[in-house]
Amino acid sequence: MPGIQSLSKGEANYRKAENPKFSCHECKFMFPRLSIGGCRFVRGVIHAEDTCDEFEARGGEQQART
Ligand code: SF4
Question: What contacts 40, CB < 8 A, 6 or more positions away?
Fold first, then answer.
């Protein structure tokens, strides 16, 4: 797992999400979950409709209450 904000967008293969199910908005590392925010791993401004190779879906066991 990468360190906190250790990746550039190029390194993470940050790009437009073709499938909204796998976009930053649905990824557990985006904060806050607005149209524009930040990411735990990727530096810079993160757009909810984009994605990258570090994508991980929200809603695992620890997220079950939200
Ligand atoms: S898909 Fe990538 S850039 Fe987007 S929030 Fe998740 S880890 Fe960050």
Answer: 4, 5, 29, 31
